Amino acid sequence: MLFLTFEEATMNVVEVAADECDACPTSAHVRAFLYAEMPSGHSLAYCAHHGTEYIDALIAQHATIVDLRHMVHA
After folding, report:
1. Tens of pLDDT along the chain (74 residues)?
2. Are 63 and 1 in contact (CB under 8 A)?
3. What does the alpha-carbon distance between residue 20 and residue 43 come to, in Å, rounded to a whole number?
4. d(CA 18, CA 7)
5. What's the whole-model pTM score?
6. Could you say which of 30, 34, 37, 69 has the lowest number of CB atoms within 10 Å?
7. Cα separation of 57 and 18, whole Å?
């Protein structure tokens, strides 16, 4: 598992189809703040709420994570 801070993320990229939450039913208006790439190569993007909910499971699955949740209220 690789967990990246914002500074480290500038050197690492998780490609996602769109900068929208994969868990919110109305994701078109929700900016993603947590990105994960699974070992299989599948990528996910989550809003801060769902990123917080799923981060432990993503870590357990050895996902590469770019966590920008600290920027929600920046």
Report:
1. 556 665 555 555 666 666 788 888 755 556 678 889 889 989 898 988 899 999 999 999 999 888 888 877 75
2. yes
3. 12
4. 22
5. 0.71
6. 69
7. 22
